[in-house]
Design goal:
With 458 residues, the protein is an alpha/beta fold. The chain folds into 2 domains: 229 residues, Amidase signature (AS) enzymes, CATH 3.90.1300; 162 residues, Amidase signature (AS) enzymes (Alpha-Beta Complex), CATH 3.90.1300.10. The chain is 38% helix and 16% strand. The chain is built from 16 helices and 15 strands. The strands form 3 sheets. An 11-stranded mixed beta sheet has the order 1-3-2-6-8-7-14-15-11-9-10. Helix 10 crosses helix 12. The protein is globular, with a radius of gyration of 21 Å.
């Protein structure tokens, strides 16, 4: 069971096709690992009975010689912000403690249609509003290897589940880095695709969307396998009204033009700086052309916070009178802050969002992709005040501005972005490297990520 739980989805898919592993064994191994690592508290709900029934049906299809789908028999989990038909979806909030959706979110439906087997819902902060792995519904989720450090948020449980072998694949969501942050903290891969590429129809404002759903897995190959089953436009999404544009591919690092963004206006921990600098120089040694750039992403923190706060005030504010006493305190504060912002503030944030998009497009006009650290520092200690300040490389700042200035701007601009493991600190804490590129060019992004992954092994 241990060996099966630790197999990649790609290896597991091949083993199921060759009948070396059955879907029942794959699901049993994932469920056994969830039980064995219950101390990590990665799941809100485990759908063991439904998963076992689905595994038996999948096994019968294998034995009958039926044509198998890309994810046939592979266990996957889903962040508890994304709807699952017949399975409780709490959004980390007591407001929705007993909410059972009638329909799957688009990503969940597509994962099931590709043969994947849902094994449960993973933990998230309340409405994904903060960069710490706690919620009123599930309590605290722990880092898979360093219990005194955060696993990242808000796709906390998804990052931990994938890293700890509780199923090789998980669907996360990303409203400011919420896939890429836990991916970096837990030492896995996480992809935020281009706006509209994996439709997220639960959002109240699809035209001004800044939250995305996407795949989380232990390596780039698994991330590609999962993404290929989740992607595809949907006419119900305003960004899904046309066919996917032609996909570029990257077969070699030689001749690729990469912009290296080492700081983004913030201080960077020396070990993170050294590891990510070594990674970019490794790409350069294998033929990539590197141009160092300076984009002050940190300066857009207030723009991001305006979008976050006003959205929470509009969406969750009406529940304050009834549920305010059981809400996360930091959520109440964000709602109150959002309620004080004006229409002028929101319009200014929209204009700044446009300016940020143009700044990135100017760089991408001359390069193939941009590379940066995912975070300025390794996983932070648990229990930090997410409304307070943290110290990175001797300088203090807000958690968002000082720790993850590299991630939230890309939620506002829509560019596809991926975090992959880039070594560890002396304490063994994971470090992440972020790559982002042109809209709709996920195939190229995944190619480059795979080439980088191989380069880091050498």
């Amino acid at each position: 069971m241990t060996e099966i739980a630790d197999m990649t989805a790609t290896a597991l898919a091949a083993a199921i096709r060759s009948r070396e592993v059955s879907p029942v064994e794959a699901v049993d191994a994932a469920l056994a690992r969830i039980e064995a690592r219950a101390d990590l508290n990665a799941f809100v709900t485990v759908t063991a009975d439904q998963a076992c029934d689905a595994a038996k049906r999948a096994e019968a299809e294998v034995m009958s010689g039926a044509e198998l789908r890309p994810l046939h028999g592979i266990p996957f989990s889903v962040k508890d912000l994304v709807n699952t038909a017949g399975v409780r979806t709490t959004q980390g909030s007591m407001i929705f403690e007993h909410n059972v959706p009638a329909e799957d979110g688009v990503s969940v439906a597509r994962a099931k249609a590709a043969g994947g087997i849902l094994i449960g819902k993973t933990t998230t902060p309340e409405f994904g509003h903060k960069p710490e792995a706690t919620s009123p519904v599930s309590g605290r989720t722990l880092h898979p290897t360093h219990p005194d450090r955060t696993p990242g948020a808000s796709s906390s449980g998804s990052g931990v589940a994938a890293a700890a072998g509780m199923g090789p694949l998980s669907i996360g969501s990303d409203g400011g880095g919420s896939i890429r942050i836990p991916a970096a903290c837990c030492g896995i891969v996480g992809l935020k695709a281009t706006l509209g590429t994996i439709p997220h129809l639960q959002l109240p404002d699809l035209f001004g969307a800044n939250s995305y759903v996407g795949p989380m897995a232990r390596d780039v190959a698994d991330t590609r396998l999962f993404f290929d089953s989740l992607k595809g436009f949907d006419p119900r999404d305003p960004f899904g009204q046309a066919e996917m544009p032609p996909q570029r591919r990257a077969r070699s690092l030689k001749g690729l033009r990469l912009a290296w963004l080492p700081r983004a206006g913030a201080s960077v921990d020396p070990e993170v700086a050294a590891a990510t600098e070594a990674a970019i120089r490794g790409l350069e040694a294998e033929g990539a052309e590197i141009e160092e750039i300076d984009l002050d992403f940190k300066a857009f923190e207030e723009t991001f916070l305006t979008v976050l706060r006003t959205g929470l005030a509009a969406r969750v504010g009406p529940h304050m009178a009834k549920f305010g006493n059981v809400m996360d305190e930091t959520l109440r504060v964000r709602i109150e802050e959002g309620s004080r912002l004006t229409a002028t503030d929101a319009a200014h944030a929209a204009a700044e969002r446009t300016r940020m998009f143009r700044d990135i497009q100017q760089v991408l006009a001359r390069v193939d992709s941009i590379v940066s650290p995912t975070l300025t520092a390794p996983p932070l200690p648990i229990g930090i005040d997410t409304a307070g300040e943290v110290e990175v490389a001797g300088n203090r700042g807000t958690v968002r501005g000082a720790w993850y200035p590299f991630t939230y701007p890309l939620n506002l601009t829509g560019h596809p972005a991926l975090s992959l493991p880039c070594g560890t600190t002396r304490e063994g804490l994971p470090i992440g490297l972020q790559i982002f590129t042109h809209w709709y060019q996920e195939a190229f992004l995944l190619d480059l990520a795979a080439l980088t992954e191989e380069s880091l092994k050498r």
